Amino acid sequence: MAVHKLILEDVFNEVSYTLIGIHCTIEDYRVAYLLNKYLGINLVRSKEDLDFKNSKSNYAFFEWEDKKHLTTWSLVSNICKREEARDIDLKSLFKTQEQITKTFNLIPEYRQVNYFLKIDNEYNYTKEKSILNRILNIPQIVTAYTVDASQLKSKDNLIFY
Hints:
Double Stranded RNA Binding Domain; single chain; IPExxxVDY family protein; IPExxxVDY_fam; 10 strands; 3 helices
């Protein structure tokens, strides 16, 4: 009896979304507000942040589902800063601790990017240039550009819920 083997690797590795990296230093809720205003969308903060590595890092997450165009817009923070206490051994009778700040990145390949805007469309139809130009017109945003998601090593971190 013949054995048939199905190879589905190419089907699931296909990238069907647009990913835009955003550089700015303002708070996450202000970025969401400005994107809503300039792009005409309605991003809303999720009740729970994205949680990675057993609560070692949390990333702010905003999402909006455009049912008319079958598009899901997601804004996620790329940087998480967390303070941790570390014991210092000074060879003395008492133990001392110091506070250190650790920085975690959702996408480590792009450490300098503050936020990612993921536009997931079932029909792979987005006006990428138009969206990018409108984002670049926002005065508080330093720069924004399209990221090739197929080249990312940590693209699994971009699978939300």
